[in-house]
Amino acid sequence: MRSLSCFILVTLLTTVSSSLLDKLGKAQLSELVKTEFEKKDLDDIFDKEAFDKFEELFKDNKTHEFIDNLKGLSDKAKKSLKLSTEFRQKLKPDDSKNFNKFFGFIAKFEKEYHNDTHVSESFKKFQSTLKRIEERQKESPKAKFGVNQFSDLTPEEFIAKHTGINGVEHLKQLHGNINSSKLLRSKRDTTQIPCNFDWRENNGVTPVQNQGGCGCCYAFSAVGVIESQHLIHTGQTLHLSEEQVIACTNNVSKYHNHGCNGGTAPGVLDYVIENGITLADNFKFTSGDGDHTVPACPSGKPYATKITKEEFLPSNDEDNLAKVVYEVGPIATYIDAGGIQDYKSGILDVAEPSGGWSINHGVVIVGYGEENGTKYWIFKNSWGPGWGDQGFFKVKRGVNSLDMAQFNWAAYF
C-alpha cells in the first residue's frame, strides 16, 4: 500500500517545492520521492507540521497531472484523489490541514470513493477519527493510536464490517449448562509459570491473515488456534482454509454460523474435529471480496490437519487463562472491538463503556507479560499485518479489559 505514498507524501513533506516540480523530470522526481519515503514512517508524518508543504502542490494547480503520472496505483484510487482535490476547494481554511492528512490517508490505503458526496462524507468521518484518536491517547497513554485503514468509518460501520460474532446469548446458555468441574482449569500454581510468555517467540503462532469486509472473525480466530496447535506439535507452519469452515458451517444449525454475517468459534472447532480442514491453497478465501458471497461447501478436499477436542475455560479467571495459554497454546477468545479501531501499539487500557461491554469480535490470545508494572495480554487479530502492531495488540491484564475474560476456548491437536 505504499505505492502512492512513495510519490505524493514524501514529495510534499520534504523540500520538494512546486518550483522543483518544474525543474525535475518525472523519472527523477519519482526516484527522489521513493528514496525519501523509505526513510520515513507514515504514522510519524501524520503528526508533523510538514504537512503544510502540501499547500505548494495545490497552489500550483498541478495535482491532476501529478496524480496521472503516479506509478503502481489503481485507476480507482487515482480517481479518489482527483475527486478529493476538487472537494478541497470548497473547504474552509481551518479544515485544510486535516484535509492534507486525509489526502495522505487516501494515498497510503488506496481508498476508492465514487463521487463528491462520498468524499465529503468520508472526510467528515476522518475528522471525527482524528478527534477520537486524541481522546483515546489521553485516556490510554501507554498505548499509541493513529490513522489506519478504518479511519474513514464510523464506529458503527467499523463494527458492522470488520468483526462478526453472533450467538453470544447461545454461548452464555451453553456456559451455564456446563458442569463447572468440566471447565478447563490448570492444576499449576501461578508461581509455576513465567511472568512473560509469548508463543510468537516459541514457534507457536502462524502469520496474521485478513478477513476483509466479511464478518467472519470467528473463523479466523478458530483457524488461528488450530494452526498454532499444528505448529506447536509438528513444527510445521500451515495456512489452513478459513473459507472452508465459513462455507461448511454456514447456516448449519448445530454450528450457529452465518457466513459473513457472524458466527461462533466453537462451531468452527467442532466442525474441524468432525471433518478436518484443508489448506488455504485448496480453497482460497474469497468471501472478504466484492459482495461477500459465501461459496458452497466443497467436497473431496484433502484435509491437512485435525484437532481432537476443544474445551471451554471458566469465565472471569485470568490467572487460570494465563496458565492454560502457557500449557496448551494460543486460545480463541471474544472481545468488544470498539476500543481498538484506532490502535497502533503499546498496552491498551480501555474503560468499560457507560452502557457496558458489547462482545462482537473473535481474536486469539498468543501470550501475556508485564511491562513497567503493567500486566498485559497479547492478541493476534485478523485485519492484516498492516493494522496495529504488525497485526497484534496488547491489552491490560487482570481487569477483564474489552470483556476478554468471558468466553475462551482451547483446542487440542
UniProtKB/TrEMBL annotation:
Q: Signal sequence: where?
A: 1-18
Q: Which PROSITE patterns match?
A: THIOL_PROTEASE_ASN, THIOL_PROTEASE_CYS, THIOL_PROTEASE_HIS
Query: Could you tell me which SMART domains the record lists for this protein?
Result: Inhibitor_I29, Pept_C1
One Pfam family matching this protein = Peptidase_C1
Tell me which UniProt keywords the record has, alphabetically.
Disulfide bond, Hydrolase, Protease, Signal, Thiol protease, Zymogen
GO molecular function term, any single one: cysteine-type peptidase activity
* Lineage top rank: taxon: Eukaryota
SUPFAM superfamilies in the record: Cysteine proteinases
- Could you give a single Gene Ontology term from the biological process aspect? proteolysis
Q: Which InterPro entries match?
A: Papain-like_cys_pep_sf, Pept_asp_AS, Pept_cys_AS, Pept_his_AS, Peptidase_C1A, Peptidase_C1A_C, Peptidase_C1A_papain-like, Prot_inhib_I29
| CDD domains from the UniProt entry | Peptidase_C1A
Domain (Cathepsin propeptide inhibitor) spans 102-158
Residue intervals of the Peptidase C1A papain C-terminal domain: 193-412
What family does this belong to?
Answer: Belongs to the peptidase C1 family.
Q: What is this protein called?
A: (pine wood nematode) hypothetical protein
Species assigned in the record: Bursaphelenchus xylophilus (Pinewood nematode worm)
